[in-house]
Amino acid sequence: EVQLVESGGGLVQPGGSLRLSCAASGFPFGRYDMSWVRQTPGKGPEWVSSIHVGGGSTNYADSMKGRFTISRDNAKNTVYLQMNSLKPEDTAVYYCNVRPNWGNTIYDYWGQGTQVTVSS
Fold first, then answer.
1. Per-residue pLDDT tens for 40-78?
2. What are the DSSP E strand ranges found in the chain?
3. Which helix (H) or strand (E) holds 32?
4. Taking a C-beta distance cutoff of 8 angstroms, is the pair 58, 51 a contact?
């Protein structure tokens, strides 16, 4: 069974930092790209960042470039999101996501999410 468990969210002041973690299990973690997606009430999901299997290639949404850093530790089956210079508009539930292609079918797995609140 595929499981993604996020942690590290919380309340932080504007300009502060948080490091999110996503512990994965139930699939060969090192073979799949991983992503972070966030969602706020009343809005659809917003893609944040993705990292390639080897960790050497990363991508970010424009509003996160230069502030967020995605990384992974394939030995620990964990993907991270370091968030710096946080803004109130970064307030959201952050989800870890993987979309493996098995047997010509693309599956879509999500964690339970971790709440990030940026407020003074």
1. 988 889 999 999 998 789 999 999 999 999 999 999 999
2. 3-7, 10-12, 18-25, 34-39, 46-51, 58-60, 68-73, 78-83, 92-98, 101-102, 105-106, 109-110, 114-118
3. none
4. yes
